[in-house]
Amino acid sequence: MGKDKSEAAEVTNQPALSNTKLINLQNTELGGLKSRKKPKLLLDDPRFRIRPLQQVVSACTGAMITAIFMTPLDVIKTRMQAQQTQLSNKCFLYCNGLMDHLCPCDSKSPFIGIKPQQHLNGTIDAFIKISRSEGISSLWSGLSPTLVSALPSTIIYFVAYEQFKARYMEFHYTYLAEVKGSPMGRDVPFLIPLLSGVTARICAVTVVSPVELIRTKMQSEKMTYAQINSAVRNVVQTQGIWGLWRGLPPTILRDVPFSGIYWTCYEKIKSHFNVKEPSFGFSFLAGFISGSLAATFTTPFDVIKTHEQIEFGEKVIFAEKPEKQVPSRTITQRLSSIYAVSGMRGIFAGLGPRLFKVAPACAIMISTFEYSKSFFYHYNVNQYNDQILSADKLTNKNEV
Fold this sequence. Notes:
12 helices; mainly alpha; about 65% helix
């Protein structure tokens, strides 16, 4: 009994502390592999979960860094395309592995800029000649504002993925608690990143598709805002409201399968190594591998999408007299046509260059995104600890 009283007195003499414990991150790295030793639920705790605005900043940072690193490769590619003859009324796909745009293949395109006076032989030769004749900065021609216009798509995509993933995980935990009597699962089911990636990509391309169509038309014809209004009304009158989404099906055809495969592979790699808060190097390598696998499996869809989008651009977007009806063909018909002409090599045409662009772009984007998320996670934990300490100090002051 006396012992209980002494213990009670000892507790009474201690400073008043809130019932919530401080979160100690001193023994963890900022996004390091040591995070494997932390409780798995800590990163999913609603108190520290990355907020939507922080996700926006993370996605924006990743998109800009990816664009800066990948733009020179496509500037060189489009310069070499510009050397070819009979390119009037033609168009090309600008794609840096993160974002792609349909552009007219002429000297007015910001990605082509000054028409090269020297013949370019290969990537290294083009890099040297363009840098010497026009300056190193010319390798980033068209980065602003055309690439910046693609940021909304990237932001919507990554933020939507994080939001969908969080909701699906909540449904998963609820299911385990109600059906199996255990609120926790050992691993993330592969369906969660698959569904999250698919739904996020559908949302992103659906929202941005009309804006991208208008932006491309504006770029090619230097239209004013009044002319844009007129063009939008004309499209709606002649083709209906769905005319603004004419380029959506081929985009979904490639991007949605890619997104589902990419996120499933990426999350499975993290789960295999039991990593919840990946380091920059880990996420870079995982993103590179996942991007390579997704790009390989979806190359046939990419070939079909490229054929359809370029055909659409030449007959509708950049044509002087746009066609109201562009004949559509099914996926099977297009694959059969390509196979009849070029065989399997045609179906997987461009796999090498695509891997060369997509894999590094995915690696740069996801590693930057994850590192930014890790930064904000630690920031949220520190803010939480500061609030607890402030509340404790106020409580102690009132008791005194």
